[in-house]
Amino acid sequence: MTDNAPRKTLPRLDESLLTHMPPFSRLERRQIREILDQASSRRYDAGVAVFDEGAPAERFFMLLDGYIRVVRVTATGEQVIALHIPAGQLFGIARALGRDTYPATAVTAAESIALSWPMRLWDEFVRQYDGFATETYKTVGQRIGEMNTRIVEMATQQVEQRVANALLRLINQTGRKVPEGIEIDFPITRQDLSELTGTTLHTVSRLLSGWEKQGLVKSGRKRIVVCDAHRLVVISGAQLP
DNA sequence: ACATTAATTATGT
DNA sequence: ACATAATTAATGT
To answer: What is the pTM of this model?
Structure first.
């Protein structure tokens, strides 16, 4: 149930929105102005699809606030979470991958705000904005790298190490400091974690309960705090040569 | 070593 | 009060 209601840009977007985002950080003020004038801004509730896998890639997006979950669905209907995207990154950039349809579904993991532009502007951006191409390909490379290591993990490690690794990545990318440790900055269920690690929510629940008793993590409904990242690293099977 | 099934309890609107 | 999340035990491959 995607909401496709047409959305006009109500307030003038402030230039400071983009000046510190890597793909735009090298640009002049007037260039940022140009870019913003062509953008639409939109707010999304948590858990809604921004676009769907296989749909024609009509727009590309910059996440201003919130988190995006990149999700694929298998032939049997099970969801697989590929990765999470934090604010400040581009997404839905099918064009950068030489595609004209979106390769995966993008779901908001929390309430989010994103700018978007028609995909026809992609080549123009790449051509005339200094640093845009290099910066975006850098993040594309990082994402491919992450998925790559996850594939290796799936094939080599067992479940306990995989969820440990998933947790470590999550607190690295989207961690927020709280008194008890580092909390994952968006609501995340055991189901979500299981879809990230290729296991069941039951196994994840058991693992988290066990770790909680050892004071390693602290978790509640839809929230997980990592207290001792060190011991998690040990469990994750950090390569000792 | 892990999934599946099922039954039970907790938690948020 | 109701739906959604989480836990826990038992059984299966």
So the answer is: 0.91
Residues A229 and A178 in one domain: yes
Domain with A115, as residue range(s), is: 15-154
Query: Which distant-in-sequence residues (6+ apart) come within 8 Å of A13 by Cβ?
Result: A36, A39, A41, A115
Q: Write the pLDDT tens digit of every residue in A37-91.
A: 999 999 999 999 999 999 999 999 999 999 999 999 998 889 999 999 999 999 9
Instruction: Give the closest nucleotide to A201 (alpha carbon vs C1').
Output: C6
Q: Rounded mean pLDDT of A126-138?
A: 95
Considering just the CA atoms, what is the radius of gyration of chain A in Å?
Answer: 19
Residue nearest to nucleotide B5 (CA to C1'): A202
Asked if A160 CB < 7 A from strand B, the reply is yes
Structurally, how many domains does chain A consist of? 2
Position A64 in a domain = yes
C-alpha of A37 from chain center: 26
Whether A27 and A135 map to the same domain: the answer is yes
pLDDT at residue A10 in the model? 56
CA of A30 to C1' of C4 (A): 48
